[in-house]
Design goal:
Number of strands: 13
Bound molecules: the ligand O=C(O)c1[nH]c(=O)[nH]c(=O)c1Cl
Structural class: alpha/beta
Mean pLDDT: 95
Number of helices: 10
Order of helices and strands: HEHEEHEHEHEHEEEEEHEHEHH
Low-confidence stretches: 3-12
Length: 312
């Protein structure tokens, strides 16, 4: 049987979805994702109460990516749980994600109690890496706190739960974080969030381009793909195989999807490029990935997942 026929017969499970924060603020945006070719969707990170977020302009697109300092604007976790529970009922064969984030461990526990009370059957993404709430550090860079949060959260929460991590830039930090993560019954880790506190400048006006934090914001897009691939692969090398990896960062073509999977990702999420192109991007990325797989004779993701070669 020809390779092409084999691929046609074993269409791989779609593995592409949105990154939290992009095209997922309200029911309208989430419904558009649900209608698209995306494998699933994740909501904007919900907090205990709804939030307006930082003053605008707080998002800016560049040729190579984006800078954002949204400040966690969201409708509140309850809104997202109500909506996703409804959608989940209509599509039992899809696994939906709800993202949430507290400002301390007590809030994280309250959020997960709210999830449990709502009867949510999907996957929770605990965001440990928002870089844009003035005065709040990125939890993911405080290893002891991450350990304490996961220990506390898993004392009571039995559902499917993953964590959204910031990018790390030090091999010892990969070692230390993996050691902590391997202690817990995590469904997955999502690596990476934006690279925090970058600065993009309008040279003509000699000015920053976003209002919050004197122009400092999280960087996404082409700028961060090498960092994202390194984080995905570093955790792939270190985590128990029971913990899946969602790869996020710098994805705008089928090649980028292929590279994230080659580094060990089981699924990928698209942020900046989705913001630029809209939900039709999922059809394009799926087609481009299929073409690459066909040209290499791969039938399913496991044929190449994590199989990045080193130079011997
Ligand atoms: O400013 C934001 O809302 C934001 N922006 C990001 O780039 N990552 C996050 O996790 C969040 Cl929560």
């Amino acid at each position: 049987v020809s390779t092409a026929t084999k691929i046609a017969q074993k269409k791989f499970d779609n593995c592409i979805m949105n990154a939290s924060g992009v095209w997922c603020y309200d029911e309208k945006e989430l419904s558009a994702l649900d209608k698209s070719e995306a494998a699933s969707f994740v909501t904007k990170s919900g907090t205990l109460e709804s939030r307006k977020g930082n003053p605008k302009p707080r998002y800016f697109e560049t040729d190579l990516g984006s800078i954002n300092s949204m400040g966690l604007p969201n409708q509140g976790l309850e809104y997202y749980l109500n909506f996703v529970n409804k959608v989940q009922e209509q599509n039992p064969n899809k696994n939906y994600f709800v993202s949430c984030t507290g400002f301390n461990v007590q809030e994280d526990v309250l959020l997960l109690e709210e999830v449990k009370k709502s009867g949510f059957k999907g996957i929770v993404e605990l965001n440990l890496s928002c870089p844009n709430v003035p005065g709040k550090p990125q939890t993911g860079y405080d290893f002891e706190t991450v350990d304490m949060i996961l220990q506390t959260v898993f004392e009571n929460y039995e559902g499917l739960l993953g964590v959204k991590l910031p990018p790390y830039f030090d091999i010892v930090h990969f070692d230390q974080m993996a050691k902590i993560l391997n202690k817990y019954p995590l469904t997955y880790i999502n690596s990476v969030n934006s690279i925090g506190n970058g600065l993009y400048i309008d040279e003509e006006q000699e000015k920053v381009v976003i209002k919050p934090k004197n122009g400092f914001g999280g960087i996404g897009g082409d700028y961060i793909k090498p960092t994202a691939l390194a984080n995905v692969h570093a955790f792939y090398q270190r985590l128990d195989s029971r913990i899946q990896i969602i790869g996020t960062g710098g994805i705008k073509t089928g090649r980028d999807v292929f590279e994230h999977i080659l580094c060990g990702a089981s699924m990928v999420q698209v942020g900046t490029a989705l913001m630029k192109e809209g939900p039709s991007i999922f059809r394009r990325l799926t087609r481009e990935l299929e073409a690459i797989m066909r040209s290499k004779g791969y039938e399913k993701l496991s044929d190449f997942k994590g199989k990045l070669k080193y130079m011997n």
